[in-house]
Amino acid sequence: MLAHVTLSDDLERISAAAHAFAAPGERVAGILATEPLDTGRVYLCAYESDAGEHAWLALDDLGAPVESRRVLHDAASLAALCEVAEETAGGGDVAELRATLAELREREAPEGIDEAEAAALALEQALQEEPRLATTAYLDELGVASRRLEKALGEDSASPFAAALQQSMPAVEELAAEVERRYKGPLT
After folding, report:
1. Which of 68, 99, 116, 176 could cross-link with 152 by S-S, CB 3.0 to 4.6 Å?
2. Which of 20-34, 47-61, 90-104 has the lowest mean pLDDT?
3. Res 50: pLDDT
4. E-strand stretches of 74-137
5. What 8-state DSSP symbol labels residue 142?
6. Which residues, in sequence order, are bridge partners of residue 100?
7. Are strands 133-135 and 42-49 parallel, antiparallel or unpaired?
8. CA distance 53 to 61
9. Model's pTM, two decimal places?
10. Mean per-residue pLDDT for 26-49?
């Protein structure tokens, strides 16, 4: 019988592997789990030195360093986009939005409040708790749920969620470039 392995279990295993790559005076500061398209699992491991310097290393699912610049870039970009999507979805605080909608229902009971509350709940349920795996499917799920909420709230034209993701692209690209610049291993 196969045991069920959770993302938390994988992160513990990768954390042990990541520690083996730490230089003297350096520690693993965090790990982001990603799964770029056509790549498999990639774990972005952030390192911090006693001097306050930062470095990165991406490990594959076996705990081996990633050497592909494209895979590293895709993983870093995906992690950043998922972060932006979570921070932007539903105005950034879906629980507060749901509370506001509930108050509005009590005070005014406007037409369409049921649809708005259902869409806000669906978005809240789409948001994954930490630790989470950054995937394109997760981004898509957040996008669909966000758009449903926007429409329920009367936003029929351009999507504020999509606009926020588009506006974040320079910062996402800068983060990916920073990860490449501070990479602990060779890249091809």
Report:
1. 116
2. 90-104
3. 93
4. 133-135
5. H
6. none
7. unpaired
8. 26
9. 0.90
10. 96
Q: Pull the structure tokens for residue 177.
A: 């470039």
Lookup result for tokens 């499917």: 137
Any idea how long the chain is?
Answer: 188
Per-position DSSP letters for the chain, written without gaps between them:
-PPPPPHHHHHHHHHHHHHTTPPTTEEEEEEEEEE-TTT--EEEEEEEETTS-EEEEEEETTSPBP--HHHHHHHHHHHHHHHHHHHHGGGG-HHHHHHHHHHHHHHT--TTHHHHHHHHHHHHHHSPPSS-EEEHHHHHHHHHHHHHHHHHTT--SS-HHHHHHHHHHHHHHHHHHHHHHTBSS---
Residue 1: the pLDDT is 46
The pLDDT, as a whole number, for residue 5 is 66
Q: First and final CA of the chain: distance in angstroms?
A: 40
Q: Answer yes or no: are the C-beta atoms of 59 and 43 closer than 8 Å.
A: yes
